[in-house]
Amino acid sequence: MRRRGGDFGLGVWGAGDWGRGVWGAVGKGGEESVHPLLGHYESPLPPLYELPPLAPPSRASCSRCPCVVPDQKTKFESDELFRRLARETEVRYTGYRDRPLEERRQRFQAGVREGHTEMAFMTNGTNMYLQLATGFNSKEVDFEKEPGKVHLRSCFIMNGVCVRWRGYVDLERLDGVGCLEYDEEAAAEEDRFLREEIEKYKARLREFEEKQRAFRVPTTSHAHHAHSHAHAEQANIQVR
């Protein structure tokens, strides 16, 4: 089978040849000759080199890596940024700042009902993208608590600490008051997960060390046997 190809003079895979195992080589005339690939060949001879030692287990191999620091509450209470954001201060909606005010009002309410919004602390300019739960029994979005305002709550992890954004926004001015709170419940859950992952990593490390010891034993025995055999041969030569 022959097909038209370019004049690159290089072997190329055909677009539909991945499942058939064929290789195309372009000839001088610009035609591509297709040949079946050889099957995988396994040599019956033993390998010339020993296998490399196993790699240690990686922390990134778990399905979800811990995202928090060991002592979250201490960091929340001592970190200067958290201490500033923990005080109730002026906040403002920062989305679509280049659009007219009426359009921004509509987009703000639409985004909140969809479960997201952008808010900034005006004291230090910290901008946050908040994700909100909008289910039937959700307490994170409340348009009914106070007329003309929407009360928001959003839980997330910031700088290794579980926090909760809490505040309200005026639906006309698109500003309000907000702060960050330490999320005790989420912090306890993340701490438990962190401890579990540390224990799993230690167990995998112990298993790795045991495999390393088991790998070294046959190699040592083989070296001892080879040394004994060489010593016996040398003694035999001396006898002769």
UniProtKB/TrEMBL annotation:
Note the Pfam families from the entry. CBF_beta
Protein's cellular compartments: Nucleus
Report the Gene3D superfamilies cross-referenced here: Core binding factor, beta subunit
Q: GO biological process annotations for this chain's record?
A: regulation of hemocyte proliferation; regulation of transcription by RNA polymerase II
Q: Which residues form a coiled coil?
A: 184-211
What Gene Ontology terms describe what this protein does at the molecular function level? sequence-specific DNA binding; transcription coactivator activity
Name the source's superkingdom. Answer: Eukaryota
UniProt family annotation? Belongs to the CBF-beta family.
What name goes with this protein?
Protein big brother
Species of origin reads Scylla paramamosain
